[in-house]
Amino acid sequence: TKPRTFRIAAIPADGVGTEVVAAGRAVLDALAENSDGAFAFDWEEFPWGCDYYGKTGKMIDDDGLERLKEFDAIYFGAVGWPTVPDHISLWGLRLKICQNFDQWANIRPVHFLPGVQSPLRKADHTELDWVVVRENSEGEYAGLGGRNLSGRGPGGEVAIQSALFTEVGCERVMRFAFDLARTRDRRKVSSVTKSNAQQYGMVLWDEVFKRVAQDYPDVETESVLVDAMSAKFVLRPEDLSVVVASNLNADILSDLGSALAGSLGLAASANLNPERRYPSMFEPVHGSAPDIAGQGLANPIGAVGSAALMLEHFGLPEQAARLNRAIEATTAAGVLTRDVGGTATTEDVTKALIGHLTN
Ligand code: NAI
Ligand code: MG
């Protein structure tokens, strides 16, 4: 029989993005080659990013989104380089894709890997395991606002950056979080806001959370303010399962979570369009890491974990599990990059991952 072929658009973009996407592609191709012809990946790579901007003045081609629509998924590296202001590169490529493809749920699992030292005192990888569900279409990253509203010019400038919260936007990401909680051993959803200080959008969020929770009586809930939640991440991580939060709060908390797991380089994420009207996008949580780019130091595990999330999205959960087992076997064997205390290169880790897939 003909293998199921998944068409994937690769956008490595900048810095370590190119290194970890190359690693992820190699691992996925090895997985497909060892699947007895059950499935295959058909890749197309796009050159968009800050170099492309330098040459063309565009972060993505004008017809880029049209072309991406045809793919089953997007496999993304990281965007951003000191030659281009970060708000231009991020809005011009990554946020453009997230928003136009209505990838409203950003899933960021945090768990502890064997052989990786966590800065947490009582870290135990058998107990600590949570998922940050990030509202990914509105909130603080809605792009609403303006500059120089006073018309007073240099020295007197005024800027407004507004956050947008809609009942529909809150409800869909919360239902997603509750449904996810039902698939986990610990059925609990923690909602994060700052509704004591932000009395409009975040109070709406709290109200929607209370209403949605009524439909899930089997799921434990709590509402926690973001400052308290950041302390809880460190002090009582075993008390968390699914954490749902707005765009900005979840962005910050998920970096904290991945640092607690040992390194930003380990953290995986999926930007999902759950209705599947558009392709979803899979990318490591980290950025382009200009401080280590081009030296073979990048940890590819965040990117490879994101590939596992992509396999789940393709309906291949057993293959995703296989990939995650290869990650655990690799870290347990002490094949670690510098960020997690080892001396292995990106290539060493990639080879070890492939070795654990094929034998
Ligand atoms: P960053 O995530 O690139 O780096 C933060 C720290 O983590 C650095 O010390 C870096 O060396 C380390 N790190 C990151 N990825 C690593 C990996 N795979 N292996 C080992 N160590 C790793 O964040 P930073 O420095 O704030 O941003 C750099 C650029 O990336 C900026 O232009 C920023 O806008 C962009 N960025 C892009 C993102 C995306 O495309 N999704 C997300 C975050 C930042
Ligand atoms: Mg971030």
TrEMBL record:
Gene3D superfamilies: Isopropylmalate Dehydrogenase
Keyword Metal-binding among record annotations: yes
Alphabetical list of Pfam families matching this protein: Iso_dh (PF00180)
Keyword annotations: Manganese, Metal-binding, NAD, Oxidoreductase
EC number from the UniProt entry: 1.1.1.83
Record domain Isopropylmalate dehydrogenase-like: where: 7-353
GO molecular function, one term: D-malate dehydrogenase (decarboxylating) (NAD+) activity
SMART domains (alphabetical): Iso_dh (SM01329)
Enzyme class: oxidoreductase
Cofactors: Mg(2+); Mn(2+)
Presence of the UniProt keyword Cytoplasm in the record: no
Catalytic activity annotation: (R)-malate + NAD(+) = pyruvate + CO2 + NADH
Family classification: Belongs to the isocitrate and isopropylmalate dehydrogenases family.
NCBIfam families listed in its UniProt record: TTC
Protein name: D-malate dehydrogenase (decarboxylating)
Biological source species: Streptomyces scopuliridis RB72
